[in-house]
Design goal:
binds adenosine-5'-diphosphate, binds 6-phosphogluconic acid, 222 residues, Rossmann fold, alpha/beta
Length: 222
C-alpha cells in the first residue's frame, strides 16, 4: 500500500487519508504461547503504545512492559523539541501544531527500531486525541506487517492531579492536568486496537492487568 499523502512535515493531511486504524491494522499476533515472557517468540513485530494524560503512569507501565517483553523502550517525553518543553514548563498546554512533528518523530523512531531488527518496541505518548493516535496508526505503512496496539491508561482527574503533584523533577506540573483532560478524547469503541486499563489501582494491580491483557491480545489472534 502506498504511504498516505502527507504535509511537508510528513503528517497525514486528514482523517480521510489515514485509513488504517482499527480494521486495517490487525490487533494481535500469532504466538507460541510464550510470547509475553519472551517477545522474540512471536511471529509478528509489535508496537505497544502506552497512552493517557499526564500522571496516568505511562512511563511506569512502559518501562515494566518493555522489560517483560524484552523490547526497547522509547520515552516520548525525550522527543519533544526544546520549545515544547519550555511551553509545558511554563504551564502552557501544547497546541496541535506543537504536537505534529513530535508525533511523527515518535512514529519514525518506532519504525527505526523495527527496521533495525527488534521484534517490537514499547513507547509512551499521551496521544490525547484520536487524530494523534491516527498519526501513529500509519506506522504499518512504513514498517509493513508490524502490529500496533494502544494501551490506554485511565483514572479520574483528581487521581492524576495527586500523582503529578507528588512527582518530583518533571517539567509537567499539576497545573497542566486539567488542560489534558479538557482535550482528552478517550478511545472509542471502534478503535479496536486499544486495550483500556483502569490505573486508579495499585501499581502491582495495574501491571498484572496490563500483562494479562497483552497476553490475551496476542493469543486471541493466534
Ligand atoms: N498505579 C499507581 N499508583 C500510584 N502511583 C503511581 C501509579 N502509577 C504511577 N504512579 C506514580 O505516579 C507518578 C506519575 O507516573 P508516570 O509513570 O510518570 O506517569 P506519566 O508517564 O503518564 O506522566 C509517578 O510518580 C509514579 O511513580
Ligand atoms: O509525563 C507526563 O506528564 C506526560 O507524558 C507529558 O510529559 C507529556 O510530554 C505531555 O503529555 C506532552 O504532550 P501532550 O500535551 O500532547 O500530552
Amino acid at each position: 500500500m502506498a504511504p498516505p499523502k502527507s504535509l511537508p512535515n510528513g503528517i497525514p493531511t486528514s482523517s480521510n487519508t489515514v485509513q488504517p486504524a482499527p480494521a486495517a491494522v490487525p490487533n494481535g499476533v500469532t504466538s507460541t504461547g510464550t510470547a509475553v515472557q519472551d517477545g522474540a517468540e512471536t511471529k509478528h513485530k509489535h508496537i505497544w503504545l502506552v497512552t493517557g494524560p499526564a500522571g496516568c503512569g505511562k512511563s511506569t507501565v512502559a518501562k515494566a512492559l518493555a522489560t517483560h517483553l524484552n523490547m526497547p523502550y522509547i520515552e516520548g517525553d525525550e522527543f519533544h523539541p526544546p520549545a515544547n518543553i519550555e511551553k509545558m514548563s511554563n504551564g502552557i498546554p501544547l497546541t496541535d501544531a506543537d504536537r505534529w512533528d513530535w508525533l511523527t518523530a515518535l512514529r519514525q523512531e518506532s519504525v527505526r527500531h523495527i527496521d533495525a531488527g527488534n521484534h517490537g518496541v514499547v513507547l509512551t505518548c499521551s496521544a490525547l486525541k484520536r487524530k494523534y493516535r491516527d498519526v501513529i496508526r500509519v506506522a504499518p505503512y512504513f514498517a509493513p506487517g508490524v502490529f500496533l496496539h494502544f494501551i490506554y491508561l485511565h483514572a479520574p482527574e483528581e487521581v492524576l492531579l495527586k500523582r503529578v503533584g507528588a512527582r518530583q523533577g518533571h517539567y509537567m506540573g499539576a497545573n497542566m492536568v486539567h488542560s489534558q483532560f479538557s482535550i482528552l478524547e478517550p478511545p472509542m469503541e471502534d478503535e479496536t486496537d486499544v486495550i483500556s486499563i483502569d490505573v486508579s489501582r495499585t501499581p502491582q494491580e495495574v501491571m498484572d492487568d496490563v500483562l494479562a491483557q497483552v497476553q490475551q491480545t496476542m493469543e486471541s489472534d493466534e
